[in-house]
Amino acid sequence: MATIVDGHAIAQHIYRRLAHQVPFLKKRGYTPKLGVILVGRDQASHTYVRKKGEAARRSGLEFLLKTLPASVSTKQLIITIQQLQQPRYHLTGLIVQLPLPKQVNTGKVLEAIDPQLDVDCLTQTNLGKLITGSYWIEPPTPGAILSILKAHHIRLVGQRIVLIGAGALVGRPLANMLFHEQATVTVLNRATVSLARYTKTADIIITGVGQHNLLTGAMLKPGVVVMDAGVSFVAGKMYGDINFASVVKKAKLVTPTPGGVGPLTVAKLIENTVKCARKLSNSSI
Description:
Layout: E1 3-4, H1 7-27, E2 33-39, H2 43-58, E3 62-68, H3 74-84, E4 93-96, H4 106-111, H5 124-132, H6 140-151, E5 160-164, H7 171-180, E6 184-188, H8 196-199, E7 204-207, E8 225-228, E9 232-234, E10 237-239, H9 244-250, E11 253-254, H10 261-280
Parallel strand pairs: 1-11, 2-3, 2-4, 5-6, 5-7, 7-8, 8-11
Antiparallel strand pairs: 9-10
Helix pairs in contact: 1-10, 2-10, 6-10
């Protein structure tokens, strides 16, 4: 049976570090402040934003939520971003909750975010730093996954890692981060034929697709490490990408949903907001 990751426990280590840093920044006149733009009524997005707000306030950060209707245009959304980035709002981090409605040009919207406030690491500037290895903050979900692997002392150098999903939030940035860890990385996407052909030889599998039961125990070799960053809702219940009951019998380490990668993703976002505040204040905590 696998060891089941307790994402909340690992996240607490991050929050304890922040508990010392936030008061120091406030004394210097820099209160970390996270701004979130939420578009529409997507259930998952509202759940994520609520948890981000709760975590920010618990950690002593200020939190600003701007909600917009699902009918919003690209231009209107960009204007909102530009307004919130004005000095009077004192933001040290800003995110646009994804996904956005189909009529919105997501790329243009993300590029309107100031890279110094881009705590999701989705601007071209910050993505470029991931490629070169010069990044100073980590995208929250990839950062959460690496934090779990390191907390459990999972070796990355030379390991065969299969990433299922090549999205902007998980697969693409994480692939670059793993390259810098000297792992051997294979990225699977929607055009990949037979996932099992790749997953059965993997030492570590990381999935972030949002498709329930995508990965089953029959697709694994014994002793594999499985990190599940996918989220979907079925009849109002949250699931990851894996068939947990079968995977837990084959893996040596596995993340549950909820309670695995999710809590750490939120913690890494809050940590990034504090790091941006430190940089803006020229602090060296």
